[in-house]
Specification:
Chain lengths: ~70, ~400
């Protein structure tokens, strides 16, 4: 399986936090008290649930560094 | 101690008005008391940002040469209603682009719709217009294909029939055997998650629950520009049961709002694609509330701990139109991240942006503080609640 990386487009994100509600692995969480979305890609399992949940197309799973280097 | 709109506007004009956000007002009343807060604070600003499907724009493209009476029109492939005068169009936020597969391959992606076209216009991007007509003696043209930008339009007015709901449902999936895809997001079966969509203690109508100052003619922050409350929104219902403090315990009042699209910003008007559901437009709204007396000082100090919302099952009860609440929960619990429903702890997240709601309230505070935004006295109040319901006037 090619390694993919979860990307967050900060310009597109409105910090609604809907994505965090779909993440079961702690990769996306709510940073309080600012109520912004915190991303920890090391915990991401590439399930893609957050990508579906984002109404603003601010999240995407793109080819990661290993795949781009042809090593995956 | 009471104040008038005129006195407050005079202070705004002199740059001497004391303006705080609805969040800050909670601390002011707690620390200083209601009477002092009513004396010292002139205006409380509110804010909300979230998908508001009943939104759209009236666009007048200007007359063509030769003239044309548009019968059908599409903007970037999205149909705009043209059953108006010759070159007036109404572009609705939830209208889908032609050829969208909808939910044929479930759940649909709904990549592009009217809300996205409105966002593109506000960003200054070119939008492709394709229009057709049957031709008349006075409007002979039958076909038009052109690229429009916001500045090319003769008029572009955001006209949203129902925005800024006063409170709203918390959605769960209690009975479904699979994930469901709703306008309140993706809901997993077995009460696995809950979603809500209100700014709670920052929300405009929750800070003026009896519509004493928010009425027809109120000047507001709308989509990053200036707008107005033009009427009660569709489905406005002031008779929803209320708390002892007079705050509705479910969806109640709504606002119809209007403003010049040319003065707005894509930071506060965003197209939305909801998987399995459709498209929408996320709208930023902020309403200033003049502190005319102690009652308004008290109502604008309401906190999330005092505000409750109904938990509704969207797998069966809502679609069957029997939305009996499974529970009522506070916005404090919702915001903290979990609620109790039918004896279970259910994680909760917001679909509206509290961060942007704060930014809107702070921006409106800055505008008023700088003397560039005065308060509009309503020319008519919104329909109000009956006196017997929760003590509302």
């Amino acid at each position: 399986m090619a390694k993919r990386t979860l990307n967050k487009d900060q310009g597109a994100c409105v910090e609604c936090t809907a994505c965090a509600g779909q993440c079961r692995f702690g990769a996306l969480s709510i940073a309080r008290p600012g109520f912004t979305v915190r991303l920890d890609v090391s915990k991401c399992t590439e399930c893609g649930r957050c990508v579906d949940a984002c109404g603003y197309r601010a999240l995407g799973l793109a080819a990661g560094a290993l795949e781009r280097a042809g090593a995956a | 101690m009471t104040k008038t709109y005129e006195e407050i506007n005079e202070k705004i004009g002199k740059g001497k008005a004391v303006v705080v956000t609805a969040e800050e007002m909670i601390d002011v009343v707690r620390d200083r008391g209601v009477a002092a807060a009513a004396r010292e604070v002139d205006v409380v600003t509110t804010g909300t940002f979230g998908p508001m499907c009943s939104s759209g724009a009236v666009l007048n493209i200007g007359h063509t040469t030769p003239r044309m009476k548009i019968q059908r029109a599409r903007l970037n492939g999205v149909e705009a209603y043209s059953g108006l005068a010759a070159v007036d169009l109404y572009l609705g936020a939830t209208q889908l682009r032609d050829g969208d597969p909808r939910n044929d391959a479930f759940p649909g992606r709904f990549e592009y719709g009217g809300g996205h076209v409105i966002e593109a216009l506000v960003r200054g991007e070119g939008v492709e217009l394709v229009a057709e007509s049957y031709g008349t003696d006075c409007y002979p043209r039958r076909k038009l294909e052109t690229t429009l930008r916001l500045q090319d339009l003769r008029d572009a007015v955001l006209v949203n029939p129902r925005n800024a709901y006063q409170n709203y449902n918390v959605a769960v999936n209690a009975h479904g055997g699979r994930e469901i895809y709703t306008y309140l997001g993706v809901l997993r079966p077995g009460l696995a998650n809950a979603t809500f969509c209100s700014a709670g203690q920052l929300s405009p109508l929750l800070n003026d629950p009896r519509y004493r100052t928010i009425g027809i003619g109120t000047r507001i922050f709308l989509g990053g520009g200036v707008g107005y409350v033009t009427f009660a929104g569709t489905q406005h219902d002031p008779h929803v049961p209320r708390t002892a403090g007079g705050v509705p315990t479910g969806g109640a009042g709504t606002l119809m709002v209007t403003g010049d699209l040319k003065g707005m910003s894509a930071d506060f008007l965003r197209g939305v694609s909801m998987v399995g559901y459709g498209t929408s437009l996320a709208v930023g709204i902020g309403v200033p509330i003049p502190i005319l007396d102690e009652e308004l000082a008290l109502s604008t100090a309401v906190s999330d701990a005092e505000l409750v919302a109904p938990v509704i099952d969207y797998s069966r009860d809502y679609p069957e139109n029997h939305p009996t609440p499974l529970a009522h929960v506070t916005y404090a619990d919702l915001r903290a991240g979990s609620i109790e429903v039918l004896g279970r702890r259910v994680p909760s997240v917001s679909l509206s942006s509290y961060a942007l709601a704060r930014e809107i309230a702070a921006t409106l505070k800055a505008w008023i503080g700088a003397g560039r935004f005065s308060l509009g006295r309503p020319v008519e109040p919104l329909p109000g609640a009956r006196a017997q319901e929760g003590g509302a006037s």
